[in-house]
């Protein structure tokens, strides 16, 4: 029989999908231009004759090596699950200018000063975007100076690995993975092959030496992490840094975490003097008013497992234009449009010839349906020019038929409202019977949006 000719193979650099012919778009992850030829397999991998680290019974594995160590930044430790595990690799992603470098430099400085005198941790900060002098200037500004914090401005992977060999750090910070390149791989820094090689080398060094590693990653226009998708699979923790450029509030949430939960959120205040953790950030999202104002309502949202008291505002203004405006800030425009339609149908709210504006206070973005009821009450208050009673909060999901549906974490929301001094809560039916009600908080259960508006002393027209 004639020898079978080797056929070329093509593989997607994003997800690893293979095909026998080239295509412009991956059939698995639908990425464009990611399918490249890899050739046929020339030989099969054979078993190694000797193993350096033989397998051991699971009961004999030293679990102390996986214990987390605090970084000195409680809000960051909360997201990581208690701190950094030796050998763990954390990918920190976020938009340009959001404060990633400031946060990690603060973490590096506090980690270096965290031990007792003579037992400080050695930290190596590698910057591929700024010079060492620029990093020091920022460190002085945010008070991140430390005797055992080492700075290096390098973009060559081999030099970075040499710095790791020389310094022998306990914590490594690389800013960023897209700016470092290897001379052994073709292409400019930041392309798929370079990012894969740099990440694999840093992860190998971290695992073999037990170095906790923080890697900064850039994001694309749609907010996803730049580079191959396999980068997120290789690292142990993926942390997303979020925030509005025009607001001081920054949120850090874990997208993937092998050592802790993924429903924790850390809150930070970014200012000219650095970045500060906010153990109680609810005050940032409330207006500093002493008198009640029409068109406002306070709700309690859940960011992960943390309840945050947030205020939503609404403005309804008559217009002569044939197409009234619908503008939102910090809210989902589609959800706002749905609530307006429910108010117009179920509560007969006159919204046909009026411009409608909706916003949140403090630059926070609300996406969960629990804020539907508060937004509906804010619209009703603005339409009738009648403020809601002082000290009232509301939360609940609004259905298309005008019914109210319970939401998760209701008693955590009520406890947070009571702690901040609120005295009245309007919630969907079924909340009171699910657990104890905080002292001093009067909870009223309602079934529809119209009933909620009537109880809030805002009569629907």
TrEMBL record:
One of its GO terms (cellular component) is cytosol. Residues 65-219 form the RecA family profile domain. The keyword Zinc-finger applies. ATP binds at residues 94-101. SMART domains: AAA. The keyword Phosphoprotein does not apply. This is DNA repair protein RadA. It comes from Knoellia remsis.
